[in-house]
């Protein structure tokens, strides 16, 4: 299945049905009064968060969605049927933005969430609605209100527990492939990864989801390389694993480059818990590894892990470090939610 994290679609709610102009025509009733029914309301446009979806690829092939129109009113005071709603199904983590990309209309995180984007037009009143003591036979009815048409953007931000960040070719895909059943493309050139990959990882008795995103280069915030478009996929992660390629000439500068782009991206990404690791250490001598660890420690202001996906060195330690941080964050969120609920309870 191809991955698509952004789609532009066009939605339109249904028109309301027209009111009916009608009069009673029974035999022996010489002056039958008005009996025109009201029109039905137009269908609404909804967006729903569903399970078993992890891409927006379906909306590359179908961009137009229109709810059904309401049925017009009929004689004998019969109201028209309402138009059928239409529901746009999206994966968890989808945001709905206006056409200008400035206003978020909805955010769907949990399966089962449903939001109405556009309301259908109201049905028109039939002439029976306008009967009065001074107008016993009204000959006008209201037309149905037209539906509303919108152009919207769907943007998917993957929901993962931990995220892999780093420069291109830092070993992120190799790490994901070594610790999970995911099969990302792996090659010895930059930007092998062109879209995010997800894998389920187990550390002891704890499972968590790990996301691998395309690498960042200097100037990514200004559009260089693949830009920072994919950084949104790690916004909801609880912890980041920052891999620095041990074969880089200047590991400290490689670390600082990625951190600068993360800070430029904004939001809460720069404040997330970060675990730093020196990767590809199997390709280095012990003395070289020691020197680069010291340089990276000075730049990151924390002790880096030593990793090698080929030999397995440090892999278990990295997984348990991620797992412990995820569980710590979960416990903290649970405690905060409990306190907030208690504060609001009467």
Oligomer: single chain
The fraction of residues assigned to DSSP E strands is 15-25%
In what order do the strands lie side by side in the largest sheet? 10-11-9-12-13-14
Q: Main sheet? A: 6 strands, mixed
Please give the share of residues in helix: 10-25%
CATH topology heading of the largest domain? Rossmann fold
What's the overall geometry? rod-shaped
Low-pLDDT segments: 340-346
| CATH homologous superfamily grouping of the largest domain | P-loop containing nucleotide triphosphate hydrolases
Count of DSSP H/I helices: 5
Our Rg estimate from Cα atoms comes to 29 Å
**What integer is the average pLDDT?**
84
Q: Determine the N-to-C terminus distance.
A: 49 Å
Query: Which sequence of SSEs, written as H and E, runs from N to C?
Result: EEHEEEEEEEHEEEHEHEH
The secondary structure category is alpha/beta
Counting structural domains, the number is 2
CATH architecture of the largest domain: 3-Layer(aba) Sandwich
Number of strands: 14
- The level 1 CATH classification of the largest domain is Alpha Beta
Give a quick set of tags describing it:
346 residues, alpha/beta, Spo0b-associated Gtp-binding Protein, Chain: A, Rossmann fold, 2 domains, six-stranded mixed β-sheet, five-stranded mixed β-sheet, 14 strands, rod-shaped, disordered C terminus
